[in-house]
Amino acid sequence: MNILVINCGSSSLKYQLIDMKSENALASGLVERIGIEGSVLTQKVEGKDKYIVTQPMKDHEVAIKLVLNALIDPVHGVIKSMDEINAVGHRVVHGGEKYAESALVTDKVMEDLEECAKLAPLHNPANIIGINACKALMPNVPMVVVFDTAFHQTMPEEAYVYALPYDLYEKNHVRKYGFHGTSHKYVSQKVAEEMGRNIEDLKIITCHLGNGASLTAVKNGKSIETSMGFTPLEGIVMGTRCGNVDPAIVVYLIKELGYTVEEANELLNKKSGVLGVSGVSSDFRDIEQAASQGNKRAQLALDIFHYKVKQFIGAYAATMGGVDAIVFTAGVGENSAETRIDSCKGLEFLGIEIDAVKNNVRGKVAEISKDDSKVKVYIVPTNEELMIAKDTLALVTK
């Protein structure tokens, strides 16, 4: 069975066509600048030259049509006709409290996605557009929505209810939701397999460290705490997001410094994090290079990031009453040996010890803890697309 995985942004679209027998991607691609001048589609297929299509794409329906054309292209494609696409899995950022797992697309599900759009105004509308575009082009192909928030719906009340007037939760759904759920679910399952253990017997801390970053406490296969909150702004320091700060800072920015609400939001989400501290970049590779050349603010940005990751690891070990494994994933987690070492430095008292030689690896599944480390530490490259495809397969073959 071939499953097409679609991840729509406001002006972009990522996709993979996955053969579920082998769980390998037959093709992967990216469409950029949808609705903007300079639209471009780039498709990669192993053993073939990169396929690039540059032409105007007024909306997502045009973009998806070009994706389908690229997949069946006689020279650059991987299938002979659209009939070989058996199902479509859509990444959706927010499912609110209604969805603790993935769901087949129905009219009711689409209504619920519209309702959740107010909780994720930058993401859900684009996800909805992508689903509607696929429905128009492939009306008879079953479709599934896989939510970033769903994995975290197992958190207990004390973890997700904020200490605000309870009416805000009851009437307005203001609570912690958490994000990156598909990634946390995938890597926690994968590390249990690597350890040869039943995930229901394990306490795992998953560290999804990229430009956006979050940690999750996975106890017995379920998320019981995560660092992102009502929005992806809460938690640890990120590329451009501040993470946890005193909420009164927002009031101070507006009342004392004359910021508008929009300007304050822009500052916290797009001008803060390691970019704001370093003044160099939001890309950790640029910051590590600057720090190695003696840039003190770049080094401070890294120190803050590692310090916050370490704090959350310690907190989540306490939350679960211990920890069996720590997993590093996503761009920084998979590729930065420095981040992994410095984020665990000082946690030896918990039984966490990284082997410097084993840690000299990037982008592949590897155990990097010392042989006698009580807590096992792993790198597991995330594969959200495969997780989406697996959920899609399970639902359409039920």
From TrEMBL:
Record carries keyword Cell membrane: no
Active site, renumbered: D148
Catalytic activity, reaction form: acetate + ATP = acetyl phosphate + ADP
E.C. designation(s): 2.7.2.1
Biological process terms in GO annotation: acetate metabolic process; acetyl-CoA biosynthetic process
Keyword entries, A-Z: ATP-binding, Cytoplasm, Kinase, Magnesium, Metal-binding, Nucleotide-binding, Transferase
Annotated Mg(2+) binding sites: N7, E384
Cellular-component GO terms for this entry: cytoplasm
Sites where the protein binds substrate: R91
Enzyme class, spelled out: transferase
Places the protein is found: Cytoplasm
Site (Transition state stabilizer): H180, R241
Pathway entry: Metabolic intermediate biosynthesis; acetyl-CoA biosynthesis; acetyl-CoA from acetate: step 1/2
Cofactor: Mg(2+); Mn(2+)
Cofactor: binding comment: Mg(2+). Can also accept Mn(2+).
Residues annotated to bind ATP: K14, H208, L209, G210, N211, G212, D283, F284, R285, G331, V332, G333, E334, N335
A molecular-function term among this protein's GO annotations: magnesium ion binding
Keyword ATP-binding recorded: yes
Job description of the protein: Catalyzes the formation of acetyl phosphate from acetate and ATP. Can also catalyze the reverse reaction.
PANTHER family associated with the record: ACETATE KINASE (PTHR21060), ACETATE KINASE-RELATED (PTHR21060:SF15)
Recorded family membership: Belongs to the acetokinase family.
Complex formation: Homodimer.
Name of this chain's protein: Acetate kinase
Source species: Clostridium tarantellae
The organism's taxonomic lineage, starting at the top: Bacteria, Bacillati, Bacillota, Clostridia, Eubacteriales
